[in-house]
Amino acid sequence: MKQGHYESKPLNTNGKIAWSMEENEIWHHLITRQLACIEGKACEEYLEGLAMLNLAENHVPQLVDVNRVLKKTSGWQLEPVPALINFDRFFALLASKRFPVATFLRSASDLDYLKEPDYFHEIFGHCAMLTHKAFADFTQLYGQLGVNATKAERVYLARLYWFTVEFGLIESSGDRSLYGGGILSSPAETEFAYSSDAPLRKKLDVIDVMRTPYRIDILQPVYFHLDSLDDLYDLQHLDLMTCVHRAMSLGLHPPCYPEKIA
């Protein structure tokens, strides 16, 4: 299945992907660049998970190798998918502790930005956090809620995912660190979220998050932070669907970004 000009790569009978020499070189460039970029910025839990994964730098790692670590640490597994998938499948996978991973890698012309979530984004950005119980449990609960949500409710739930799993920060006693995969897989977003004075950084409030619009094609003008990843346990004890309905009744905040010109 194609998404844009990319085509997902098939798995062989051993569950492995035949990555090309060029793709191995692209992976090497992406991971070495990003490892340098996140130094001193990524949260400790992410770095601990990354150490467990022990991702290769000179070739694209295989799903089976990542799955071996995730199975042992959190019980999660990666599910190969053709880039973007519909919400029904997305929520169902998360609810069953399976994280969707697009089996294509960006080309040399798209090194700095790619609209679709590619293999590097999913593996480097998200998998280290899936070794952490609070993060993994929150992600599963999110999937379970989405399975039974209406189309309108899912739009509000999506903002909670966006501002935590994809673009979440931690701020405690003046120290800032990053845990969102959309940040940690992007050099520009890493620097912007961590160091820039331009974005607004707010303590995470679920209803506030659900009312905050976002765009996927710009550096985020607003980020939400936790005091620690253990705050995700607290979120799991909230009635999140009641929060969704409250956010829906209040309506969206004005966007913090210019309207996209078609």
Tell me what the structure shows:
The chain is an alpha/beta fold. It is built from twelve helices and eight strands. Strands 6-5-8-7 form a four-stranded mixed beta sheet. 39% of the residues are buried. The mean pLDDT is 95.
Keywords:
262 residues; alpha/beta; 4-stranded mixed beta sheet; 8 strands; 47% helix
Residue share in helices?
A: 40-55%
Q: Main sheet?
A: 4 strands, mixed
Number of helices: 12
Class from helix and strand fractions: alpha/beta
Order of helices and strands: EEHHHEHEHHHEEHHEHEHH
Q: What is the mean predicted local confidence, pLDDT?
A: 95
- As residue ranges, the low-confidence spans are none
- Radius of gyration over alpha carbons? 18 Å
Biggest sheet, spatial arrangement of strands: 6-5-8-7
Write the layout of secondary structure elements.
Layout: E1 2-3, E2 6-7, H1 21-38, H2 44-53, H3 63-73, E3 77-81, H4 87-95, E4 98-102, H5 119-126, H6 133-148, H7 151-166, E5 168-172, E6 175-178, H8 181-184, H9 187-195, E7 200-203, H10 206-210, E8 222-226, H11 231-236, H12 240-250
Helix pairs in contact: 4-6, 6-7
Task: Give a brief rundown of this model.
This protein is of the alpha/beta class and 262 residues long. The chain is built from twelve helices and eight strands. 39% of the residues are buried.
